[in-house]
Amino acid sequence: MSGDAGPAVAVPPEPIHWSGSAPFLALHAGVIAVFWVGVSPVALATAIGLYLFRMFAITGFYHRYFSHRTFRAGRSIQFLMALAGTLAVQRGPLWWAAHHRYHHRHSDEDGDSHSPGRHGFWWSHVGWFLTQSGTPTREHLVRDWVRYPELRFLDRYYLVGPILLAPGLLGLGAWLQVAAPRLGTSAAQMFVWGFLVSTVVLYHATYTINSLSHQFGSRRFDTGDDSRNNGLLALLTLGEGWHNNHHHYPGAARQGFYWWEIDLTYYGLKALAALRVISRLQPVPARVLERRRLS
Fold first, then answer.
1. Residue 190 domain-assigned?
2. What pLDDT score was predicted for residue 7?
3. How far apart are CA 195 and CA 183, in angstroms?
4. Is 220 helix (H, G, I), strand (E, B) or coil?
5. Which of 145, 146, 172, 174 could be disulfide-bonded to 187 (CB atoms 3.0-4.6 Å)?
6. Mean predicted confidence (pLDDT) in 33-59
7. Crossing angle for the helix pair 41-56 and 160-179, nearest 10 degrees?
């Protein structure tokens, strides 16, 4: 499918599961509380810090490790980073990897649930995530991971981490309000900014790769789909915006194929490899850079 395939189909492929989507919608509605709780430097720093940490857990581990196995990690690190990924409230590691592998098999084809060329922007951005049929984990696509009981546990109980994170932020804010009143924060402020705002921004930053990165940007390689490289989205998502590169060769630990393509996730993975936390980061073979090249 090319970028000139014609107008997007406006009709969604299936109805949204509204009752099942209630927690997701409640998170968004709760963001309006920023107008009542105010903001402080410490609350804003917490929101940014949790955004970056959880985005790295998604991009570095849910995506580049569990979906594509672009490096090696020990079982304990594998579990801890899968747990960190659940804090993003984007379901469990097995579900995420299975869905993403299916996407690569059917990118911008009829089977792709979040192709903007097939279903329009809003459906590809968020609608697909709110359907009932998209909730079960396709375990046959992640047979390499289902043998780990701890990963199956996290996949089934992926809300445990976020449910603990939210009151943890409330408690931290209450403690800071008493122990360090000069910081000007509170329990409500830390919860609203550290959990609600940070999570909602994280949702939509991640979703831009499904929607915007298949519509706006440049195409270096002929990948048979509409994937594009977008430097702004790469900054927002710690490197995921080099999406045409990634669809051309998903087996590399880096998505910014050249030094000027900033890929913060890859830099983080390199640091972990230097510390021997992970190993065997897969490079981009030289032959890949010239294969099916458009420009």
1. yes
2. 41
3. 18
4. coil
5. 174
6. 98
7. 160
The answer to whether residue 5 scores a pLDDT higher than 50 is no
- Comparing CA positions, the residue from 16, 100, 112, 106 lying closest to residue 62 is 100
**86-115 exposure pattern, b = at least 16 Cβ within 10 A, e = fewer:** bbbbbbbbbbbbbbbbebeeebbeeebbbb
Instruction: Locate all alpha helices (DSSP H) within 129-251, ordered by sequence.
Output: 149-156, 160-179, 187-191, 198-211, 231-236, 243-248
Nearest partner of 193 among 209, 170, 227, judged by Cα: 170
Question: Could you tell me if residue 118 is inside a domain?
Answer: yes
Distance CA 36, CA 252 (A): 45
The number of distinct structural domains making up the chain is: 1
| Alpha carbon distances (Å) from 100 to 132, 138, 183 | 17, 10, 42
Q: Is residue 2 part of a domain?
A: no
Residue 8 lies in a domain: no
Residue in this structure with the two tokens 């993975």, named with its chain if needed: 269
* Residue 12's pLDDT band (cuts 50, 70, 90): low
CA–CA separation, 132 and 217 (whole Å): 32
Distance of CA 140 to the CA centre of its chain: 22
